[in-house]
Amino acid sequence: MADELVVKKENWVESTREYIADIRGEMKRVTWPSRAKVESTTLVVIVSVFAFAAYFSILDKVIQATVVAGYDKLVK
């Protein structure tokens, strides 16, 4: 158990090289999406952002009108 906690002190240059080698190995195993897939999902995100912006804008105006109308009724 104690042997597992012992940390081998390496030269920082060697540990950096090992880290970069590990990154390169992981990047080779990544399945990258095609350009068409990236373009289509980007389009979906952009359209969704504008749709939610429009929805929340309309909702904000409805709530604002309701609050203003309620305030005006209370004040008069």
Low-confidence stretches: none
Tell me the total number of β-strands.
0
What is the strand content?
A: under 5%
Query: What is the general shape?
Result: elongated
Give the structural class. mainly alpha
- Using the CA coordinates, give the radius of gyration: 28 Å
| Straight-line distance between termini | 78 Å
What is the H/E order?
A: HHH
Please give the largest β-sheet. none
Helix content: over 70%
Number of helices: 3
Number of domains: 1
- Determine the mean pLDDT: 90
Task: Explain the overall architecture.
- It is a single chain.
- The chain is mainly alpha-helical and about 80 residues long.
- The longest helix has about 40 residues, at about 35-75.
- About 0% of the residues are buried.
- About 85% of the residues lie in helices and about 0% in strands.
- The protein is built from 3 helices and no strands.
- The chain has one domain.
- The mean pLDDT is about 90.
- The termini are far apart.
